[in-house]
Design a protein that fits this description.
24% helix, Quinone Oxidoreductase, Chain A, domain 1, alpha/beta, 2 domains, 6-stranded parallel β-sheet, homodimer, 332 residues, 16 strands, Rossmann fold
Chain lengths: 332, 332
């Protein structure tokens, strides 16, 4: 059968552009023994993918030029030569940006759409939800009464972090980039305060005003000057959870900023970088807790769903413009 | 009786100068009920004292202009109205820069000069030794075979950190500021490699060369560009122990440098600031272990002893010139 794929046609210099991607039609190989034929339903676009577009050593290898982009995908089994999967099963895995693909069962997970919509397994019940859970609970270690600040608060991770922090009895202040996001986070997601960093004249002061007892946990999804403003308000014995630095992903030179070590030292602050793979052995704990909170109605979720396979590159680029509220998903 | 004291006569702007201090003769009050009259033997000068010369909120209150500097002192009891101390006891405590003083027994500790020379209680068996021990063991958590880099390696803390790391089976690379220090650390203190940052043309490369398996623990006493070079060689899952930032203590503006968060994130690195007071409840563990290692000959120590009460300001200023090898002490 003929199908479509999207490949990395060239590496970006700074901000990625649509010309870094190319859509190809190609003839799919026949499925062999123990292989599975999948049809994509939902694709995840995530900020960390920007790093993979560079030719740089990191915790995941770079995308290869001329090869399809890969990422989180929810798909339907069209045909299976594996005893572990059958036709019409809904699965998730790290898969190529293709409308159809033939793969082995390695790393493929069957999902239960009775628990939540299939696309949630790319979000609150997938990598972003687990990232929120482990970063906040295992690094941030929130205690009731503490003040938690979340940057990128309306993103796929931030929107979950804020709600979990509220469940722990914390005061939660979000930072987001539009009045629409501010309104939604306060009215629908229970954030105590949300600051629009784009219209706020003095972010440092806005954080001082909304965090009168200083910041005990800073869950950082963005980096850069927003983080400088938060960290200048950091409390003694605070924890800074380094989850994302989206503000800097398109930098072409080493970004410079204030040296933080002296403040971290005199205030006995912990700063911890992490990737979700570190917690792989504890995923079932995280999935169990997130599923339970969802079922109990204690966690809400939000997706921005873009329609059409061809819109994948634009959806990914849109993350860096703040186009999404909650998880950005492409549905085919 | 008449005695001498050294007061802070004015706050420094940038690097402190001798004119920021003034020596006064004054008449000591008579000792009252439960008070103790002390004669100073050894004074500790420490880098953290620079911060107290500023009028800034920190973990210790600033020195007051016109009042004596205070710090770690070893002294002899000349007269005691306390049942807990008697004449000729040797004690240590946080005391004013005075040849004699009259104080209450609060915070005063009797020391056993049979275990180690009295001045060691200002160094390896005092705040610097405990700082080395808790920072390395409780934050760095060294494992045999790991690579540990120590900046300010010939200082009162660094010289102990390197030796403890060797006792844990680590490869230890020091960074120091003179060939004399390099030679001493390698030949007398067992460091595997020591880099003279002042004569090294490319510190980043020197660290890559001496740490072929990258840096698992960075015990940072200095900050600034030395730390930038080390951190660019940091390993996955590394720990950065923020103990001191002496390179920046005399800065008058916020020092700028490369933003580190993205590297800390992608390599899952922990950076933890601390002050020794955080570990107060565990001091007996630290003192016990350090005393044992000293007694067994597994830890060596080194002091730079300056003679004369009047030399106290010059000795403190000398820390910022790297004049000391090991602990800087003033003997009276």
């Amino acid at each position: 059968m003929t199908t479509k794929q999207i490949v990395l046609s060239g590496r970006p210099n700074g901000k990625p552009v649509l010309e870094n991607f190319q859509t190809n039609n190609f003839e799919l190989a026949e499925i062999k023994d123990s292989e599975i034929l999948l049809e994509a339903m939902f694709f995840s676009v995530d900020p960390y993918m920007r790093g993979r577009m560079n030719d740089a050593k990191s915790y995941v290898p770079p995308f290869e030029v001329g090869k399809p982009i890969t990422g989180g995908v929810v798909a339907k089994v069209l045909k299976s030569n594996s005893v572990n999967f059958k036709e019409n099963d809904i699965v998730t895995g790290n898969l190529p940006w293709q409308q159809h693909c033939v793969i082995t069962e390695n790393g493929l997970l069957k999902i239960a759409t009775s628990v939540a919509p299939a696309s949630y397994y790319l979000g609150i019940l997938g990598m972003p939800g687990l990232t929120a859970y482990f970063g906040l609970m295992h690094i941030g270690k929130p205690k009731a009464g503490e003040t938690v600040v979340v940057s990128g608060a309306a993103g796929a991770v931030g929107i979950v972090v804020g709600q979990i922090a509220k469940l722990q009895g914390c005061r939660v202040v979000g930072i987001a980039g539009s009045d629409e996001k501010v309104k939604l986070l306060k009215e629908e997601f229970g954030f105590d305060e949300v600051i629009n960093y784009k219209t706020c004249n003095d972010l440092k002061k806005a954080i001082t005003d909304t965090c009168p007892k200083a910041v005990d946990i800073y869950y950082d999804n963005v980096g850069g000057e927003i983080s400088d403003a938060v960290i200048s308000n950091i409390n003694f014995n605070a924890r800074i959870v380094l989850c994302g630095q989206i503000a800097l992903y398109n930098s072409t030179e080493t970004p410079m900023g204030p040296r933080l070590q002296h403040m971290l030292l005199t205030r006995s602050v912990l700063m911890q970088g992490f990737i979700i793979g570190n917690y792989q052995s504890q995923f079932s704990e995280g999935m169990g807790q997130l599923s339970l909170w969802l079922k109990e109605g204690k966690l809400k979720y939000k997706e921005t769903i873009v329609q059409g396979f061809d819109k994948l590159p634009a959806a990914l680029l849109g993350l860096f413009e703040g186009n999404n509220i909650g998880k950005m998903i492409v549905e085919v």
